[in-house]
Design brief:
The protein is mostly helical. The chain has one domain. About 90% of the residues lie in helices and about 0% in strands. The chain is elongated. Keywords: Membrane, Transmembrane, Transmembrane helix.
Length: about 100
């Protein structure tokens, strides 16, 4: 079995990749929706409101995901170590229950 630090790093990398993938998809979706709505919105004032709102959503969501990833990096030993210990304990309980049910059968 891999060491605890290797498992923590693997979980952190997977979460970081998922978070930034979500941000990239969010940017594509918001910009696509803005482009499609832009074509049917004749009023320049409404277009400005739409552009500012889309920019705010993208800015704040990107910043919050960045802050989350930074926090995870700073506390990854605690966050992921706790998860791994719980996953290992659950795996042991399932193994014991499986072994016990095999003995009863």
């Amino acid at each position: 079995m891999r060491s605890l630090n290797e498992r923590i790093d693997a979980m952190y990398r997977r979460d970081r990749l998922s978070a930034w993938t979500f941000v990239a998809v969010l940017w594509v979706v918001i910009l696509f929706v803005l482009f499609m709505v832009w074509q049917v919105t004749p009023d320049p004032a409404i277009r400005l409101v739409l552009a500012v709102a889309a920019g705010a959503v993208l800015l704040f969501n990107t910043a919050s995901i960045g802050a989350m990833v930074k926090h995870y990096r700073e506390d990854k030993e605690f966050i992921y170590g706790l998860d791994i210990r719980h996953l290992d304990a659950a795996r042991e309980l399932r193994a014991e229950a499986s072994k016990q049910s095999a003995q009863e059968a």
